[in-house]
Every structure is written in structure tokens, then in C-alpha cells.
Write a structure and sequence with these properties.
The chain is 59% helix and 5% strand. With 556 residues, it is mainly α.
Length: 556
């Protein structure tokens, strides 16, 4: 049997194993409450689901049906994609499951592209082992699966980024211009506007290296990318009244830019350190062996997403370890470079051995070198998935469900409880503003401003004594005078951590309720309901009311 045939069989076997892995991952994210199974996505994805449901129901892309127009999502095309599933006869508890399954499909398709990309970069197309190494490292790099199967647009962006890379590599060989590449890059910006940087770098690369088609690339690239950018900006301004998404104002305004960049460098270094700094730097040795245009583009594709992550200050969840949502989409390209570098080092060792006094020894060592390469790849994958410490491998090996499932269950239980104790006319103030409105069906105010334009345009609360890791873009703005004092929500399930003292003056018109079943989810199991509100089912909470004379308030 030829090596190519063996490689093909092993590839599809690896894909089959990954499909099983993804299925187990998704199964472990299912939450059971009172006998009902719920599929729940990462809360930012649930915010998009809330917009998607309102769009599908004819209210338009808004956070609350009939509410203010605020663009609290940064993934318009993905949100529209989510809306499609809300048009199907799928029960609400299972719609998120469809998103998770589609994410797994996108990742499987990405594995096919990674195999092709790696093969196209090899000096010898018959070297079937290295594509398998790249595919294995990509498939079982946990953060990529984690983000993708929790409903974030990482899955489709990973697929499209790899598709762009594959098209570029083919172009460099065939020198054939195609405007479709720029349309694909434009679609990426509809999935996330910050993918414009990826598109811009790709466009500049082609203009620089392709003398034959330079004018076409310059013209078509500029026109198509500008059309996508201007088109969505015009829509945003006409519909939402802002030039940029509300999430941009929330995350990038009201604080010094250098603070974002400083944190971005800090959290990226922590990522590289936990990833294993030596292994992270290893692929850069590839430039010692090969410095052609294809190699440089792979590094550019990876580097531009890292640069963007640094610019915005990283993600809010860096304390969990692993690649964040911004550059996880190009981690497969990193894995390709890693596998190619291992092969170059293997070849260098063999070349040295063949030039030595014992050429017979080199022939014996060659098959062993392949075993050593695979062993190195496996050891490296273990390092890559040791997100913070050795215990974090329990997530990659699926001994534990995603670390975000705990938070998802808390949000789901709050939403279902809110639905039980309120009327449909009630309003809720939520810290996690995705799952709460989606599963409660109640009008919800976003405490942290993702879907609140007033809060998003305010200054950030920055503690100069806090660590850079505690500066979390998108989670540093709140305004209790507005969110409680002006909006007067009927139910406040929780107060943002560390801000109880700020909230307390605005809670004088609220009744404290305490539930033992929520003590594992909320400090003291405490929530607040607006005293005398006709939208609270008081008969449902009578046994939970804490008498005012106790003077009980939630702990900071």
C-alpha cells in the first residue's frame, strides 16, 4: 500500500475520531434543569442568539423586542445565520445545539483544508505524515474546539481564514488573479468587522508580491473591501445611528489606548509562556530553512490576528488560558508551521547523519526519526493544552465539561427562575445579558453596556492598583444611576462583582430575597426585586423575602 493511501486512511480515521470528540464535548455542555435538557452557548454567543430570535420574529436585529436599536453584537452575518435556525420548528432549549453541531461541521471542513495547506507547503508531496501531524495538532487543540462548539463565530472564521490561506498558496503557484478572494475577505468582515485587518494585510501582500496582476489586485481589492466596509457602515449608521458597533465604544473608548496595548502584550506573553515559550518560538525556525512568499504569508496571516489581539488588549477571559477568540482562528496556521518546522529539523538531522562516517546508521535512524517526530508532536500537544496548569488537561481530555459550562448553568437557572417569579411585562437587569433574556423571555437591561449605548460611551472604571489581567475590555463600564435609578428594573438577579457599595444607594426601593438553591451561584443566594412592582409574582417569592429589619445586603 502506498504512503499516499495510508495517509488518506489515517486522515479520515483522525477526522472520525475528532467527530466523536466533538460529539462528547457538546454532550458534556448540555445542562439539565428539572428534567429538561438545555443547550446553552457561551454568553456572548447567547447575546447574538437574542438578536437573532428577534430578527427571525420580525422585530429586527434588536436586543429587546420593540426596544431601542443598539448594535450589541459584533458578528452580523453570524447573527443572521443564527436567525435562520429560529425560523425552523426547533424547541428553544435545542436551538443552540444546532449552532454547536454546525460549528463542529465547520471545524471538520477546516481539517480538510489544513491537510491541503500542509501538503502544498511540502518539498515532497509524498511526505504524507506531516499533513497528519498538522491536522492532529489542529483537531485536538482544545481552545479552538472550546470556542467553536460554544457557538462563537470562531468556527466559521477559522474555516474561512484557512480557505483564504489555501487560495493564496495556490495563487502563488499558478499566478491566476481572482476577484472571488476579495469577496471572501469581505464576507469575513461581515462575520466580524475586525477581520478587516486580515483582509487588508492579504490585499497588501498580493499587491506587493504579484507584479503580473498588481493593478488588478490594487483596484479590485480596494473596491471590494471598501464596498463591504462602507456598506455595513452605512447600514449601521442608518439603523443604529452609530458608525461603529456599540461593542467598539464599550471596549475601546473611555480608557487610554496604551493601557489596552500594554495589557495585550502582557496577556499574549502569558499565553506564550503557558503554551511553552520554546515550542511557541519553534515555528519561527522555519524561516531559516525557507523564506519564500508562501512561508512569509503564513506568518503574516498568523501575525495580523495576534497584532489585533494585542491592540484591543486581548480578550476578557485570558485568565482561563489558551488562545483567545481573536487569534484562535489562525492557530491552525500556527500548527501547520509547527509541523513543517518539525519536518525540516528531522531532515536536517538526517542530512547530518548521512554525511557522517556511518551512513548505514542513518538508514536505520530514518524510520525512527518519524516515530520521534510523532512523539514530539504528541508531547507538544500536551503542552499546548496545559492551559494554566497540569489540571487543565482535564478539559482537553473531556474529563470535565468546558470551564464555561458552570457560568452557563448559573445564567440558565437565573433566567428560568426569573421567568417563574415575574410576569411577561417584567424587566430584568442582567450582568450576563445573553442567556438571561433569551431563556426568560423578559425585557432585559444590560448592566455592562454591551447592548446599552449610554453605558458604552461612558468612561471605564479603572482601578490603578489592579493587575493588568483584571482589566477586562468590555467589562469595565457600568452606571447604577442609569441602570437602576433611571431604568428601575423589576428584578436584579446579581450585582457586578466588587461593585456592591456603588449599587447599594440605588437599592433602597428594592426588597431582598434569598434562596438556598442559589447560594452556589450567587453571593448569599441573594437577588433584588422592586418593592411593590406589579410585574413580580409575589406569591412565588413570599418565602424568600428577607425582612428589612435584618439589614441584610449582599456582600461585596
Amino acid at each position: 500500500m502506498s504512503g499516499k493511501k495510508i495517509g488518506s486512511i489515517l486522515f479520515w480515521l483522525m477526522v472520525s475520531v475528532y467527530i466523536l470528540y466533538a460529539a462528547v464535548f457538546i454532550y458534556k455542555t448540555i445542562i439539565v434543569v428539572n428534567g429538561q435538557h438545555y443547550a446553552v452557548l457561551f454568553d456572548d454567543a447567547m447575546i447574538s442568539m437574542q438578536y437573532a430570535r428577534n430578527l427571525a420574529q420580525g422585530y429586527g436585529p434588536v436586543f429587546n423586542a420593540g426596544g431601542d436599536r443598539v448594535e450589541g453584537y459584533s458578528n452580523p452575518l453570524w447573527m443572521v445565520y443564527m436567525a435562520f435556525f429560529h425560523l425552523l420548528p426547533i424547541p428553544t432549549p435545542y436551538i443552540s445545539l444546532a449552532i454547536q453541531i454546525s460549528g463542529a461541521i465547520f471545524l471538520v471542513l477546516n481539517l480538510i483544508l489544513i491537510r491541503r495547506i500542509t501538503t502544498s507547503m511540502l518539498d515532497s508531496p509524498s511526505a504524507w505524515l506531516i499533513p497528519l501531524v498538522a491536522v492532529g495538532l489542529t483537531a485536538f487543540y482544545y481552545p479552538l474546539t472550546n470556542w467553536s462548539l460554544l457557538g462563537v463565530e470562531v468556527s466559521i472564521l477559522t474555516l474561512l481564514a484557512s480557505l483564504v490561506v489555501w487560495i493564496i498558496l495556490n495563487f502563488l503557484k499558478e499566478q491566476k488573479f481572482s476577484a472571488w478572494l476579495y469577496i471572501l475577505l469581505g464576507v469575513c468582515t461581515l462575520l466580524r468587522i475586525d477581520m478587516f485587518g486580515f483582509g487588508l494585510v492579504t490585499w497588501a501582500f498580493l499587491v506587493l508580491v504579484d507584479a503580473k496582476n498588481r493593478r488588478k489586485n490594487l483596484l479590485w481589492g480596494a473596491v471590494i473591501l471598501a464596498t463591504f466596509l462602507v456598506g455595513q457602515t452605512v447600514f449601521r449608521y442608518l439603523y443604529y445611528g452609530n458608525v461603529l458597533p456599540n461593542t467598539y465604544y464599550l471596549k475601546m473608548t473611555g480608557s487610554p489606548l496604551m493601557l489596552h496595548i500594554k495589557r495585550g502584550f502582557y496577556v499574549f506573553f502569558k499565553f506564550a509562556w503557558n503554551f511553552n515559550l520554546v515550542l511557541f518560538l519553534l515555528p519561527f525556525l522555519y524561516l531559516v530553512f525557507r523564506r519564500d512568499r508562501a512561508a512569509w504569508y503564513l506568518f503574516l496571516a498568523f501575525g495580523v490576528q495576534v497584532a489585533y489581539s494585542i491592540y484591543v488588549g486581548g480578550d476578557a477571559w485570558e485568565n482561563r488560558g489558551g488562545a483567545n477568540r481573536f487569534f484562535a482562528i489562525v492557530m491552525p496556521i500556527f500548527m501547520v508551521l509547527f509541523a513543517l518546522t518539525l519536518e525540516k529539523l528531522r531532515q536536517a538531522v538526517l542530512a547530518f547523519m548521512r554525511g557522517g562516517p556511518k551512513p548505514m546508521l542513518s538508514r536505520c535512524i530514518e524510520p525512527l526519526s518519524h516515530v520521534a517526530l510523532v512523539g514530539m508532536a504528541v508531547i507538544s500537544l500536551v503542552n499546548f493544552n496545559t492551559l494554566l496548569d497540569f489540571n487543565s488537561l482535564q478539559y482537553a481530555t473531556l474529563q470535565k465539561p468546558s470551564i464555561y459550562v458552570i457560568g452557563q448553568e448559573k445564567i440558565l437557572r437565573i433566567a428560568l427562575f426569573a421567568r417563574q417569579i415575574t410576569t411577561p411585562q417584567a424587566t430584568i437587569l442582567a450582568v450576563a445579558a445573553g442567556g438571561v433574556p433569551y431563556f426568560s423571555g423578559r425585557t432585559t437591561y444590560d448592566l455592562l453596556g454591551k447592548s446599552d449605548s449610554l453605558i458604552a460611551h461612558e468612561a471605564m472604571h479603572i482601578d490603578p492598583t489592579a493587575s493588568l489581567l483584571d482589566f477586562r475590555p468590555g467589562h469595565n463600564k457600568w452606571d447604577y444611576a442609569h441602570s437602576i435609578g433611571d431604568l428601575k428594573p423589576d428584578l436584579i438577579p446579581e450585582i457586578w462583582q466588587g461593585t456592591q457599595a456603588e449599587a447599594q444607594p440605588y437599592l433602597k426601593d428594592y426588597t431582598v430575597i434569598q434562596m438556598d438553591q442559589f447560594k452556589q451561584w450567587l453571593p448569599d443566594g441573594v437577588m433584588y426585586v422592586r418593592t411593590g412592582s406589579p410585574n413580580i409574582r409575589w406569591d412565588q417569592i413570599q418565602q424568600y423575602i428577607v425582612p428589612k429589619e435584618t439589614g441584610m445586603v449582599m456582600k461585596p
